[in-house]
Specification:
Layout (H helix, E strand, L loop, with lengths): L3 H27 L1 H8 L8 H34 L1 H15 L10 H29 L5 H22 L1 H6 L5 H9 L2 H15 L4 H20 L15
GO cellular component, one term: plasma membrane
Subcellular location: Membrane
Keywords: Amino-acid biosynthesis, Cell inner membrane, Cell membrane, Membrane, Sulfate transport, Transmembrane, Transmembrane helix, Transport
Amino acid sequence: MRSPKLFLLGAIPALITTVLFIASLVALLLNIDTLVAWMSPFAEGWDETWRAALRVALGVAVVAASVMLMVVAFSTITLAIGSPFYDLIAQDVERRLGDAPPEAEEPLPAMVWRVVRQALGMIAVSLLVTIVLFFCGFIPLVGQTVVPVVAALIGGWLIAIELVGSAFDRRGLMRIKQRRAHLGRHRLRTLGFAVPAYLLLAIPLLSIVVFPAATAGATVLARQVLGEPDGRPRKAEPLP
């Protein structure tokens, strides 16, 4: 909030992605009855009470799985759309905290290919996890208690890997394996930041405000897990 121009720039890509995802979610909700009926033709001959109970549970599971996938994909797509803006936010945080590293040199074609490859990989992992949790959601009690907690933990972890990307890339740590290794040494600290970020990003419209702040917070987190200074922010210098 001390850099309102950067904050607004960071909100624009999140706003674009939010509009697209809200439209997708509304379309899903409007067609959920048709979708769950298509997914459970075997229940047509069941008693009406049991058929309705199954389809309500199936509808809840479909929506919950879709939201989890959307939250992680939201970060991936928003970062891809607004990469220059979020780099500026990360640079501003680095400058405030001091000892900011120089930009890592990487040819543009190589950088684009790396970013696309990593984004597709993250979405594929998110989809796989979503499918597993979707089916686990049908297990009595476990599906209503354990699965949402596991979804928040895994979703938060994936989002943390996404959000620290800019700070890690600046230090030449450009592989997702390197991000996982460093964050894994500070797992509780990482999840303490990432799970609330995941839950807040799951709330439509609020995510527009959260995303620029989460980008700044992830830069601080990256410095902490890398053992760099992360003390009290200095007065920001005006951006060129």
